[in-house]
Each structure stands twice: as C-alpha cells, then as structure tokens.
Amino acid sequence: MRICKKPCLTAGLLVFLNLAFAQPQNDTSESPKKYSPEELKLDLFQLRTVLENVHPGLYRFEDKETWDLRFDDLSDTLRDSLSHIEFYRIVAPLVAKVRCGHISIGVSSNYNENVFSGSKNFPFMVRVVNGKLHTFRNLSDENNIPDGSELLSINGMPSDEIIEMFYDAVRADGHIKTVRYSTLGKYFSYYYATLIGYPDSFQLRYIPSGDKKEKRVSVKAKPDMEKGALHWERYDSKTSPNVLIGSPLAFLVNEKEDYAILKVDRFFTRGNEPKNLYEKTYDSLFTLISKKNIGNLIIDLRNSGGGTDRLTSLLYSYLVDERFKWNRRMRVKNLNYNGYTKGYNYNVYQYAQDEAGDIWVTNGEELFMPHYVSSPSFRGKVVVLVNGLTFSASSILAAYIKSTGRGIIVGEESGGYSNGVTGGRGVSFQLNHTGIHFSIPPLQTFFELESPDENRGVLPNHPVSPTILDMINGRDVVMDFAIDKIKN
To answer: Residue 434: its pLDDT value, please?
Structure first.
C-alpha cells in the first residue's frame, strides 16, 4: 500500500468523487453512455500529459511531487464505468487546483444543448454576499419570493455545501476569493446543471428578504429562453444611474463637477467593431478632458475580462509623462505541442532555454521596448474601480496604476493576478474518449511592476463592496464612493 506524503485528495475533491459515483439528479438522457475505467484512466493521463507539458504555472502553488501523487491517487479511484458528466465532475475540481483563470474546461456540445436550449435550469439569478446565497432576480413562476431572500438549501442540500462545491470547481487565479464568489453567482445555473444535475423542480428553504421566518416552496425548473423573457419583462427597467451603457467602452465628462468616467468592459474588438475603436475613443476622451481642463478621471474596470496588453498599455500611456516598459519576461513550458494536441504549434516567438530549463521569449522588440507617452496626456487624479471580475489584462492595468502611485484603487480585490499572468492563445484539445474539451494557456508573462503578492489580485486602497440590497436596487456604492472621494 502506497503512503501519500502530502494531502492529495482534499475534502473538496472527495465531495466531487462522491457526487460523481452517486446517482445524479438527472443526466442528458435516459441511459447516458458509460466509459470503462480503462478509458477514463487514459483520458486522465491525456489531461495530465498536456498540463505537465503545456502549462508554465502548474507548479506555482504545489510542487511536482504533490501533483504526481494527486494524479496517481485519482487514477486509482477510477474503478467503475462513468458517464461523460460524471467524469467531468471529477476533473473540473482537479483542474481548478492549478489556480489559473485562463484554463477553460467544457462539457460536450450535446450536454450544453440539453442544459441551455431545452430544458431545466435553476429559475433564479443569485449572488453570494458574505458567504450567503441570495436570490438576485426571481425568474420563477413563484413571483412572491422577494429578491434578496437568503437560500438555506436547494433540494435538501445546504447552501453552504453548494457554495463550497462550486467554489472548488471555479477556475480562477491564485487564492482570490472575490472572483470565485462572483463567478459562481453569475453562472450558478450552469454550475448546478453540470456539477449536480438539472431536475424538474427545486425544493427551496429560504428566509424572505426583510423577514426572519423560514419558508419552504417548490419551484419548477425553467428553460433558458423562458428565463430570458421573464428577465426582460420583470427587470429590464432596473439599471443603475451611474452605469455607462456602451460596448465595449464608453465615457462621459462632467465638466461642472470636474471629473470624467471611462468604462471599459474588455480590451479587444470583436465582430464588426472598428479595428481602431480603442485608439479613437482614447484620443476623443483625452482631447475632451484637455479641452475642458478636467482634473479627475475615474476608470471603471469592474467586470472587465481583459484583452490585449497593447490596448491596456496604450491607455496607460495617456496617464504618464515619460516612457515606460510594460512586459519584462515571457516564458513557455514547451516549444512543440503537436504531441499533445492535433496539429498545433505555438511558434509565434523565438526562444532561449536557460540553465534551469525554463524557456524564455527572446525576440519581439515590440514586446519589451519602452512605450511612448501618448498625447494629450492626463496629469490629474486617477481613480480605478475594480471587482472580482476584473481579470487578466484589466487587472494588470490596475496593478500598474497602483504600483506606480499613478492612482488609487476602489472596490474589491481584482479577480486576476497582479503579476505573472499565464495566458496567451490557448492550446485546445479534447479528451479522446469522454470528449471533454480544454484550453490551456501556454505563455506566462511577468510585467515591469512591483507587486506585494503576485499570487493575489490587486488589493484596493479603499475597499468598498455592495450589499445584496444595493445590487437589487441598482445602487452603485463603489462609483458613489469614488465620486465622493473626488469631491472631498
């Protein structure tokens, strides 16, 4: 009998194993296809091989010995045949232990179609606030359940256990809690369907908002299309007066109160958006700021999922008065991924291997050369708003502004690393038997900034978090704090 020197199968992963082997609340068909233990072990070995040979940050938090034991122990538990979704419930929390928000994992297209086009979803939007699960939008037929009610249990499972289960399956950077709670709240219906099942109805225990008495109710599951229609009918008019409507970026200038707001949802263009959309918007904003002699700028990066370093560094170039460097070092784990994925080569750059075996990018002057200052530059005060969904390049921009003292950060800890981000164009592959698909980021970037803890997000100078009632009523307390900070 082999002795595990380090804890390999944690309590959270054991919960998933128990669920995977238990009878699911529902699956995609009457008799879902089962895969033999041999096929499952081959798929697990395939996943292990790709992670070990592609992801440059696999051993960032736990050493190789720990990961070897974890993979071996998990392989030993695969003694019974499992369906596609049962196996997914095992590998999802395993992959989450890499603590990388750029890894993606997906169930098969057939399962996704069953969950989101046809059938049965949890009929509420929810939010996790202070460790509690609250209804945010009621999209059920029981419209007497008030928004903000605390959910105590769903189908007999206590909410704190559900939160813990979903938390352990969220793929997110480091030990950042804000991104995990924000993600599981935003995508609760998806996590419930993939990790637990999609039953015909949900038995709820809850405490109504503003009340102390526990109540019970049974609500029917809702197709996703019906949920969308109900949301339009019941909530479309509820928007925050401070939210700038624009995709993917918009700004306003308040000349009377001497501030401007730039809201950026993402730092890349898509579809029919003009390729120079960001360049033109930046130029228009800072030209107007200069013309009106505005002294304060609020950059709202909440829910901004990232994008390209080129567009984030370009925005930063308007905030400084001297040339600056952005990228410091970039490394990969491997130079040829054809052995792990079909016909894939990540050969965009040139590389050199050091004595420790690390492979570093050596070419591309545009990556490492100092950036020029953009004109007209802004030398007034800068306030940046962040939350748990401020991720990737957006989080790095906030880190630069904070670490250089160029501005202050307001809100919650950002959801992305403050340095050492693992990203780039993902290496995509599909498990040969179960069909679960993944995308693994192959490129780790270190930036020219000082981070007090590179394994955390950007910590705000002024922590401000909305309550569940703030969210429901559209009160933007973070923006209000920033504007008040400017005024005073």
So the answer is: 93
